[in-house]
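Sample intake sheet
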Amino acid sequence: MKKNENSKLLMFLALKFAKSKINFHLCYRMQDTKKQYNTVIKSCKSVFLRKNEDYGTSWRLFRPSSLTDQIYIKAQRIRNIEDSGKNAVGDDIKGEFMGIVNYSLIALIQLQMLKDQVETDNIDTIAAAYDHWADKTRDLMLLKNSDYSEVWREMRISSFTDLILVKIARIKQIEDNSGKTQISEGVDANYQDIINYAIFALIRL
């Protein structure tokens, strides 16, 4: 009888140790994810700021629906390359995923500025808005990542492409419905998901 009790105790302690080890490993990987995420965002922001020096804030002329189409063009090109294995232009898909991140952040900034009736070409104001949405989107990712336990690391890059295209289709439908939804998330949440899927792909590439 005592032997059985000791066996049960040892099994309980072993399971508790294994669970603690898994939780520690997951916590460590999530810290690694946050670091990798910030590195990708830093690179994307650098491209955004350099292009702003070349073109100014000409993107402010885009209507939100046009920004959605720009994201769609990039995502569809990635899918075409994935399906055909051919890249006639030569630009790699990494640059396209970075473009998706930046256009999605631009869309979030544009929506907020239109809502607040802000008209500005000040790069410091725009850079601050970029950081605001990038941080907010990263924090959303970390919350979701704690629920899904880093499962995105096991996904194919092509799945991220498909998920982005699905989100674009949803945004287009919401835009066609004049921004109204019954029970679904609004366009901002979908843009944020697109950013996170694109960054996952960039981390994996």
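Comment: Residues 64 and 107 are 6 Å apart (CA to CA). The radius of gyration is 21 Å.
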